Amino acid sequence: MRDRLAEFREQQQRTYERLSASLHALRDLVNDNLRANVNVRVVNNVVGGEIEDDCESVITVENDLMEEEEEEADEVESDEVHKL
What we know:
It contains two helices and no strands. By secondary structure, it is mostly helical. The relative contact order is 0.12. The chain has a domain at 22-67.
């Protein structure tokens, strides 16, 4: 019985580690995508000649979105820890 319980806990730990790694990878992909989208918008604004005002607002939006994504990822990770 103890062996089965130990095996179950090890399996839970491995599952948590895989989920955690996947969550971090997904968060990194989202952040990279946000940065890429912002870079494209900034380049478009440079071509349009309105770099100063638009660039600042785009960077602010990027920072806000990244903070939201990190908060959501932390909440999901926290929920997963509590479930285990």
